[in-house]
Amino acid sequence: MVERISDAASASRTVDLSKTLLSLTASIICKIAFGRNHLVEPERRIDVLRTSGEARAVLGSFCFEDHFGWVGSIVDKVTGLSSKLQGVFVELDSFYGVLIQDHLDKEKEEEDPEDFIDVLLRMSEDRSGSVHVSRDHVKAVLMNIFIGATDTSAATLVWAMTALKKNLGVMSKAQREVRSSVGNKGFVDEDDLLGLPYLKAVVKETLRLYPPAPLLVPRETTQRCILSGYEIRPTKTPVYINAQAIGRDGECWESAEEFWPERFLGSNVDFRGQSFELMPFGGGRRVCPGVGLAAVTLELALADLLYSFDWELAEGMEEEDDVDIEAMPGLTMHKKIPLCLRPKIKN
Ligand code: HEM
């Protein structure tokens, strides 16, 4: 990422951060979960970024079948949602099929580290336990991870840069912290994160105001329950949790609409599912299992963007107020207009 942005900086070009950061997070997940970066060898694969974008769009659409059963399924056929869903998922299914076959075919050396697919395949070979992991289970987990991890992390980074560009005082405070803490080493690594409390607060503040999954993931009740005195009787009642409204609730947060990371300095409020006023990763047994990886990815990528570059407005933008904060509707909250900024290599 840094090389690509450096090239743009040398040529005084504008960078579309929405695109650059999506390909960064997709590459990270491909390397960690699938063993290598499949985005750099598109000739054998589907265009993963395009297809996952389409998957995101159909998943974010209103599905009548979910709410009105078989009658709804007819409406979904008429609106074309069913065939879009089918098309996208057939394509992604074949991508995961190729990844699995690659892992089955590869000659394994003793010292080769296992990636996520190796672990899932090893589990699927083990038939001694009570739960059998089938090939479809493996594909479903890969689907969850790829779509759940890349999009959300990229959207958070774009919102963080948007908020910083609109709040220049916060941007320069975070930049001063990163640059003085990391020094002249030339890059930021994981060990540096311990010395960056303000940057961590910036990430928390971004997740508070712009949780990338504003309604978390839709769930349904498994039994009758009572919530704030209301009885939710039929099982399988859909449940939506509005994490964005919770994050902006004036009863929990002082100056709730303000981007003010200082509120987290010296505070125990965290996003790992224990603080009910900050729930961007959900909570309980179905809390996002990727929260640890997400936190490190967000902090490292943001620290690198601030350490290596100064960021100027793109041509045609006069002042910080021109950076808009309008969001697109959908399962993941993306910025409606891509964030385009001009990087300058730091002196
Ligand atoms: C900023 C980044 C991320 C955000 C905001 C986020 C948010 C969420 C949320 C809200 C849920 C649903 C939790 C619930 O229903 O209570 C979820 C589930 C999930 N996330 Fe994440 N996530 C992020 C990154 C990641 C990463 C990096 C991974 C994988 C490496 C990941 C993998 C998953 C999976 C597999 C699930 C489904 C868990 C289940 O259904 O039990 N996520 N995530």
Summarize the structure.
Belongs to the cytochrome P450 family. The chain has 347 residues and is mainly alpha-helical.
Structural class: mainly alpha
CATH architectural grouping: Orthogonal Bundle
Report the order of strands and helices: HEHHHHHHHHEEEEHHEE
- Classify the fold: give the CATH topology: Cytochrome p450
| Shape estimate | globular
Number of helices: 11
Biggest sheet details: 3 strands, antiparallel
Distance between the termini: 19 Å
**How many strand units?**
7
Walkthrough of the structure:
By secondary structure, the chain is mainly alpha-helical. The protein has one domain (2-106, 114-345): Orthogonal Bundle (Cytochrome p450), CATH 1.10.630.10. The protein contains 11 helices and 7 strands. A 3-stranded antiparallel β-sheet has the order 1-7-6. It has a two-stranded antiparallel ribbon with strand order 2-5. The protein has a two-stranded antiparallel ribbon with strand order 3-4. A hairpin with a 2-residue loop joins β3 (225-227) and β4 (230-232).
Write the topology of this structure.
Elements: H1 2-10, E1 15-16, H2 17-34, H3 48-60, H4 64-79, H5 81-105, H6 116-125, H7 135-166, H8 168-182, H9 197-209, E2 219-220, E3 225-227, E4 230-232, E5 238-239, H10 243-247, H11 291-308, E6 309-313, E7 340-345
Antiparallel strand pairs: 1-7, 2-5, 3-4, 6-7
Helix pairs in contact: 2-7, 3-5, 7-9, 7-11
Bound molecules: protoporphyrin IX containing FE.
